[in-house]
Design goal:
Layout: E1 47-50, E2 56-59, E3 71-75, E4 81-87, E5 93-100, E6 109-116, E7 122-129, E8 134-139, E9 143-144
Antiparallel strand pairs: 1-2, 1-9, 3-4, 4-8, 5-6, 6-7, 7-8
The protein binds zinc ion.
């Protein structure tokens, strides 16, 4: 009955299954779209692109500070660590869902999901403050630039 050469350990009831952690998104063949020579690139206007499909999401000139910092590190309720950077605009994002304050990382701000318009990657969250300000917290390692 030994049909599989690797049957050993495959029948442990799945106890070790949760230990298998996928290293973060080494999705093959993502094109390295660094700024082409000759393109207008002051640091201020550097494009920020979706790492998955290279769609233009925002640019460095929209980088903003929220609660005193451009970048923040948070855990979501599932214990996953996110490093996010704040932008005052992200035209390349589709923002979906009803804003909620549940588990919000920024007190007084509600949030909803932001996806890449082109490839639908989850790139981060749109936050809406009580004062009516909108900003985006985008996941650093899902962006290029
Ligand atoms: Zn994309």
């Amino acid at each position: 009955m030994a049909e599989s050469p690797v049957s050993r350990g495959a029948d442990d009831g799945g106890a070790s299954y949760h230990l298998l952690r996928r290293p973060r998104g080494e999705k093959s063949g993502a094109p390295e779209q660094r700024s082409a020579p000759g393109e207008a690139t002051s640091e201020e206007q550097a494009p920020v692109r979706c790492r998955q499909c290279s769609a233009l999401i925002t640019s460095r000139e929209h980088a903003t500070e929220v609660a005193g910092s451009h970048q923040h590190t948070f855990f979501n309720p599932a214990g996953i660590l996110f490093e996010i950077a704040c932008f005052s605009a992200a035209d390349g994002c589709d923002n979906e869902g009803l804003p909620t304050t549940q588990f919000t990382w920024f007190p007084g701000c509600s949030w909803r999901f932001s996806f890449c318009r082109e490839c639908r990657s989850h790139l981060g969250w749109q936050f809406l403050s009580e004062a009516g300000t909108t900003f985006w917290g985008l996941i650093v390692d899902r962006l290029d630039g």
